Amino acid sequence: MSLLYDRYLHHFEAGQQALQEDRHADARRELLQASRYILRLAEEGDDPAMQRARKRKGLQLLELAQSISVGSHVTGSPAAGSLVEPTLERPTEETQDSRWEQVDSPGVNFDDIAGLQEIKDLIRQRVIYPFQNPELAAEYGRRPGGGILMYGPPGTGKTMMAKGIATELKAPFYNVLCSDIMSKWVGDSEQNLKELMEAARAHPAAVIFLDETEALIGKRGGRSTVMNRLIPEFLAQIDGLSSGDGGLLLLGATNRPWDLDPAALRHGRFGEHIYIGLPDQLARRKIVEIALDGIPLADDIELDHIAEQTAGFSGADLKGLAERIIDPAYAAAMETGQRVTVTAEHVQQALDRSRPSVSEKELQRYARFRDDGE
């Protein structure tokens, strides 16, 4: 998924830049490519809200690309012969409000998240307790709200953790794909960000989850004029989040923390950095147990053996492994119309075909960022 996202982001930023420079043919080509990649991403993962957000973004980009007329003439216009500027009607108030999907309760508790106990305890101390008992927390210099960046390899539970936090807080939850802020209405990205923050601040307490944060606050200085304008607006919006003037919690998640603008990682912004790493053996066992719950299993299947054989697997890798374990029995059941039990042989075949998606080189880079911020 990371490679697909990298390609999507590359074409998206190139398309935005081309629009800024009135290179319409290039803009149309790049945005069409971006829409293809984000729509492919929408077919992956197990988070329905994120899949809907990606599909919506892909269709928006496709609509924009198709609206760009290259070399067209404007009939009866003094500018005949010039390129037609892509103009799209601004959204109504109703569609503006519905752009940011608010979920009153994501329905994910910390108990639903396998492992990561130290991370859960830290989040309870830093985030949940100050919201639940603000007066007592203030005596110890802890205030509700603030910014937390969760980073680590893909598929390790960052989105689940964000939903768990919102459920524990019983606060409205805004699950935002950062690239969706980069609106198809060119030049409106800053306004979209303001509207999102205003919608969340209308509540006594709220959680904004910004997934794929590097799409919103990547390092400045590149060719993207949109990014260079948006980052100062973002920093202005989140400055002082931890000062205690409200109950807004900003959660960011990224697989590429080294690509974020350093100014966004300072105290008072995304000042707290939490590494969400690969699951340990106990957590791997729990993830597989949940994935196989309710499936007809043979008595000789040992979950401990699966956990031992899957060192280095992410949570997403383990869910894929469970699907491969189930597939042969499911296919046979569909063919025969009879219940077919999943056997230890099915497990071994799936293990033989499965490999971790996160390389040792990637893990070393996360360790360097954790230790040195690079």
Descriptive notes:
The protein folds into 3 domains: 2-70, Methane Monooxygenase Hydroxylase, Chain G, domain 1 (Up-down Bundle), CATH 1.20.58; 98-277, P-loop containing nucleotide triphosphate hydrolases (Rossmann fold), CATH 3.40.50.300; 281-357, Helicase, Ruva Protein, domain 3. It is 52% helix and 8% strand. The chain contains 16 helices and 6 strands. It has helices at residues 2-20, 24-42, 48-67, 93-99, 117-132, 134-139, 158-169, 178-181, 189-201, 214-217, 225-238, 281-291, 303-308, 315-336, 344-352, 360-372; strands at 102-103, 146-151, 173-177, 206-211, 248-254, 272-275. The chain has a 6-stranded mixed sheet with strand order 1-3-4-5-2-6. α2 runs antiparallel to α3 (48-67), α12 packs parallel to α14 and α14 (315-336) crosses α15. It is globular and about 60 Å long.
